[in-house]
Specification:
The protein is mostly beta strands. The chain contains 4 helices and 21 strands. Strands 1, 18, 19, 20 and 21 form a 5-stranded antiparallel sheet that branches. It has a 5-stranded antiparallel sheet with strand order 2-8-15-11-10. A 5-stranded antiparallel sheet has the order 3-4-5-17-9, with no helix packed on it. A hairpin with a 5-residue loop joins strand 6 and strand 7 (100-102).
Length: 510
């Protein structure tokens, strides 16, 4: 243990906590049901100003509600009882001559459901995770954001708590652009909050780029948050977990999207990468689960492997890869090219570099649903799915060679680690040093961090991550030293590491 002394007289307080491990599962989606300018939240009943890659239920339309989605014929995600919709703008490559081409995904897309059961309400009551009710909807990220006020890489990626009155920065910390290099040290989730230059990606990320989006998990009980679909939710103190701010006294699963893009397939070709809306990353969600299933899963699916197939509540369809929009798209976009090569983004969306907020795309014709329960099955889609690269790491036979996957033989250790020095390259030379925190697998995402109910107010964080056949829990504990002279305090973070290994046989993860 380390301690600090300042002045003539000092009192030392050592805080050592091992937090609860939060259960989670990774919902894996083999592809998109379609790529189109549709958004039933922000552009209800019309066309979106920019394109989205839509995962989940096949009945997705410009007017979708949970009631509509529950009638879907199929879903692109791997749990049959889940008819929810998950969507975000895809990534494009812009060549030096201005030509735009859709960047292929490396499936599966993952939506993490973490049952965060730690943290306190603003009036000191313990919190327990509850299921999203059907019809619950929200957006994370900001479409018009064109700058980042945070360093990248972020030295505070695994620390906190972050101030309640700075929710804009909390939202920035919930964005991740993760460099994929399976032969190197993996970057922590949400490590960098802006899209790196293409030349840097070409030189340092031979396995692609992972886009990450953490959704808020503190809830005020409303089904929607008005025109921006955000006001009913808030980020907890540690972004993925921890205490909730005043007015948000209920906890829903901590939802995180991960999409790996094959940026490596454009290595050496010059140009740049842009999102389908011009730049600002964001994502949308509508909850639609078969009656009672998500409620049971939140309570019963506690296997720390993170595998959806380890949850006995779920069943698993076999047609996820072929699932596509079941209804025709509106006539205005039925022939719209979303793949390229093309001279402008779908809808004529302008690429705006900022730093000022962007002007919304000129192609929008709908309006925000504003939280209303609009019911219609009209509209719909029949667009080609985006090209995909079949990921070599998608089955368990590769688990020993590349991080990620399911897995668990009891191994336990407790160590204090010193992080490896960051790689110095053109991008990192101008960024903050790498954080003193563990790097999760490039295939998995840490669970949320935050104090258990009986240790409210203590400053620390935890994370869950997998590597090969091992699932890790890292607990960050704070040594806090206060002095009688000026009531000065210094803090030092320690990492304490635990691991479990489990075998799952040779089945393919879906």
């Amino acid at each position: 243990m380390l301690s600090y002394k300042t002045g003539l007289l000092a009192t030392t307080t050592l805080i050592f906590i091992v937090g609860n491990v939060n259960a989670f599962w990774r919902l894996e989606c083999d592809g998109s049901v379609g790529v189109a300018r549709l958004d039933p939240l922000m552009d209800f009943g019309g066309l979106s100003g920019h394109v989205h890659a839509i995962k989940g239920a096949s009945a997705f339309t410009a007017t979708s509600t949970a009631e509509d989605l529950l009638k879907s014929n199929c879903q692109s995600c791997g749990v049959a009882e889940d008819k929810s919709a998950y969507w975000a703008p895809p990534l494009y490559h812009k060549a030096d001559d201005g030509t735009l081409t859709l960047v292929p995904e490396k499936p599966p897309f993952k939506a993490y459901y973490v049952q965060e059961n730690t943290g306190m309400t603003s009036d000191g009551k313990p919190m327990t995770c509850e299921a999203f009710p059907n019809g619950f909807q929200m957006i994370a990220g900001t479409n018009t954001r064109r700058n980042s006020t945070l360093p990248g890489p972020d030295p505070d990626v695994n620390y906190g708590p972050f101030p309640d009155d700075d929710n804009s920065k909390r939202e920035e910390r919930a964005l991740g652009f993760n460099c994929m290099n399976y032969k190197g040290t993996p970057e922590p989730t949400l490590y960098r909050h802006h899209l790196p230059e293409k030349s840097w990606l070409d030189a340092n990320c031979p396995d692609g780029l992972r886009l990450e989006l953490q959704f808020p998990s503190c809830w005020n009980g409303e089904m929607d948050g008005g025109k921006d679909h955000k006001n009913h939710v808030a980020y907890p103190a540690f972004i993925g977990g921890g205490d909730c701010p005043a007015g948000f006294d209920r906890r829903v699963p901590s939802l995180l999207y991960e999409t790996i893009y094959a940026t490596d397939s454009f290595a050496g070709k010059g140009g740049s990468f842009v999102l389908g809306n011009g730049y600002g990353y964001h994502g949308d969600f509508i909850a639609a689960w078969d009656d009672g299933v998500l409620e049971r899963a939140v309570k019963e699916c506690t296997n720390l492997s993170g595998q959806m197939r380890d949850c006995g509540v779920f069943t698993f369809p076999d047609n996820t890869a072929s699932c596509a929009f079941e209804n025709p798209v509106p006539d205005e976009i039925k022939d719209e090219d979303t793949e390229g090569p093309m001279k402008e983004l779908p809808g004529g969306c302008e690429i705006q570099s900022g730093p000022e907020p962007a002007v919304p795309g000129k192609g929008a014709t709908g309006s925000s649903s504003g939280g209303k329960s609009n019911k219609s099955s009209s509209g719909g889609q029949d667009k080609p799915k985006e090209p995909v690269v079949k990921a070599k790491h998608s089955d368990d036979s590769k688990a020993d060679k590349k991080p990620g996957g399911a897995v668990f033989a009891e191994v336990d250790d407790d160590v204090e680690d010193t992080p490896a020095a960051p790689v110095q390259d053109k991008e990192a030379e101008h960024e903050a040093p790498a954080p003193a925190a563990p790097a999760p697998s490039p295939e998995t995402t840490p669970g949320p961090a935050g104090p258990p109910a009986d240790d409210a107010g203590k400053i620390y964080s935890t994370s869950i991550w997998t590597e090969g056949r091992v699932v890790h829990k890292d607990v960050f504990v704070m040594e806090e030293v206060t002095t009688t002279q000026g009531a000065h305090a210094k803090r030092h973070v320690h990492r304490h590491h635990h691991a479990q290994q489990h075998g799952i046989g040779g089945r393919r993860l879906r």
